């Protein structure tokens, strides 16, 4: 079916600008942590947009928001989506662009008076970032059956506030069972969140899959003592051990191909300038496009920590925060994304995603693909996060054309 469909670019960017005002920060970014008042305001705005289009708008028991454009026949839907929650120092584009683009795809079909053969839908998934509740991608993880609603509701934030209680408080514990809408395919548009597209010739990205992710929380317990009267040889210092672990994890990236490592959280107690720490809690974020080297990196970290604990006379314990295998996407859908780019005369390259996305969870259920647009300066999770209007419209046109073709195949 050959139909000349186009996104209304001005409307796309206007919608995103409206959403960006909710939780706007003085630095030009957005702060909409999951299930906060700002997230509720963003959700209310999104539900209003969906209902204004006449979409069948539903909310499930984990707070995922689903807008459905009914097709000509019953059966699994072609789903688009992403998230509108942000990290604490978030930008305007991460996740939000994918949701707004999905809404705009369905608006374009409404404008053209077109009804797809299959249902088409857009979903805003709950707590993708994992910045407030663990794990990240929680809403899509529950949707895909990887975690029960009950277990998700028991998750608490750093202040001990429960996820289930917050869903109720903001009025977004819906009635639908997660996964209530069967998926024929899932296509997500997203900013790259890295420098590759901009630095290596521009164009867009046809994502071939997502790296495996291993998030660990380490608790290191030593012995608090006076920093001026305790000789170095007599100390049991978890702060020093944490630094050594961080260095070791980063050295692994030089010996294990394509390995990444980061320690984004380090909390020291009691946190006094003249006291050797008693306890350090730190995180490690390990990633690799392949599962075997990722497992190798984790095993190496654990072995190093065991040796370090024995040598330095401290205790080190581990807690899993998130663990997701590497996820390849569907070749047939990747090819459809490339075909759509070709129809618009847009350059596109195949690439792996360094970040986790809701698409990673949806790939458990159905053929999945992603479209990346460039992130200027490679910045994301940063108020300076930026993508151009031209790139946003180009990516949304690829999303529209691909989703429409798959929905009518």
UniProtKB/TrEMBL annotation:
Its cofactor is Zn(2+). It comes from the Bacteria. The keyword Kinase does not apply. Pfam families: M20_dimer (PF07687), Peptidase_M20 (PF01546). Zn(2+) 1 binds at residues 83, 94, 190. CDD domains: M20_bAS (cd03884). Residues 209-311 form the Peptidase M20 dimerisation domain. Keywords: Hydrolase, Metal-binding, Zinc. Coiled coil: none annotated. One of its GO terms (molecular function) is hydrolase activity, acting on carbon-nitrogen (but not peptide) bonds, in linear amidines. Belongs to the peptidase M20 family. NCBIfam families: hydantase, PRK09290.1-5. PANTHER family: ALLANTOATE AMIDOHYDROLASE, ALLANTOATE DEIMINASE-RELATED. This is M20 family metallo-hydrolase. It comes from Bosea sp. NBC_00436.
